[in-house]
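note to self — DONT lose this again. spent like an hour looking for the file last time. sequence + predicted structure for the chain T wanted, 162 res
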Amino acid sequence: MIRLDDRDIAILKVLTREGRLSKADLARRINLSPTPCWERLKRLEKAGIIEGYNARIALKKTAPHVTVFVTLELDNHSAGAFQLFEQMVETQDEIVHCWALGGGFDYLMQIVTRDVDTYQRLIDRLLDRGLGLARYYTYIVTKDVKSSGAPPLDFLLSSQAD
């Protein structure tokens, strides 16, 4: 892990909320001149701490959609079975997040698609591919309660223990 100082953390906090901020505005916001700010930003990008810049899209204003979370188990827990499943996940655009889990389920997926019927067709394709899905459970999102997307940097990076 790379050691971050207060200025690095300030850069990250501002960018998680306002990724389109100009470099001059970013420097001004963290009270640093543009050149050192730019050098810090490049260092954070090169170290892989800043993975990219994205826009958050208000899907409900642009397209009909449904968000579904799916927990699933594979019937075979070999490395090859996990690799096969994970390779398949990479090819499905509707699967926007997939996490490998420890505990009762093997994976948690977040799927964004047009409707429940389209979701079920995706699941049917996965079942037909011979991936060894033992079982899956579907959870349809009915309301977005919180989706800031910004990690709690102050909490995660504080050196003080509670």
